[in-house]
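Here is one such protein, fold included:

. . .
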Amino acid sequence: MEALKLERVVKQYGDKTAVNGINLKVEQGEIYGLLGANGAGKTTTMRMVLGLIYPDEGKILYNGKEFSNELQHLMGYLPEERGLYPKVKVSDQIIYLARLRGMAAGDAEKSLRYWLDRFEVPEYYNKKIEELSKGNQQKMGFIAAVVHKPKILVLDEAFSGLDPVNVELLKDTVKELRDQGTSILFSTHRMEHVEELCRHITILDRSNTVVQGDIREIKKGYPREEVILRTAGEVAGLEGIAGVTAVQRQERGYAISISEIGAAQRILQQAVLAGEVEHFEIKEPTLNQIFIRAVGESNE
């Protein structure tokens, strides 16, 4: 059974449709990517999932049940706009938030200390949020979202403001939570993070679903438009090959843009004639390229 399922969910504000009939399902132990440009409907969708606002049409099911206040303890949320109080100690507010989610005070303190140790900052227990760097404030927000051991976790730009070391730390943590059975709805503008963490995605544009499914299957529906070529020497005449639209010289070869797949075979033939071919790859489209194309096409 899906941990989270949205069935034809609609949300309107007056005559404006914020979310138009979205369907999606997040399995137990899955990180699901919810993507879209600003104003596409992502935040409204997340707020409905969290029970902060209610859909005008459709259903949202949690382990097969419709939302109720009793299910609040299942949810964890890291919003894009961080909400911890700057002048309050880390321990006071995170334990308080855990208790609001139904956790006993002793269990909340134990869980908080576990997470502070996990992030190698046990000394932050008695520090105020305003005394921490932006990146460490971000980590405290993450702890606040997971301290009560939610079954469903909603992450909105979870890695924003973090240096590369801490991005890797949080990514590893998110993967661990997934492996422990937590279902995660993950929203970000960083497509490389989505490709690493998610298997299934939904891309929204202007309240509508424009792309949905398994990332690997989605990529099969888009043309491969780049060839990576490495050779022992130079290859002359690449620009003149039919279907080649651009050639970029790299340290050990070429990145070649193509308009149709037949050009790749012609490139290989030219390279073989020129000498030893060390590497030849027809690159699949990146999720970033798919996003730009899908959103652009929906606006035409």
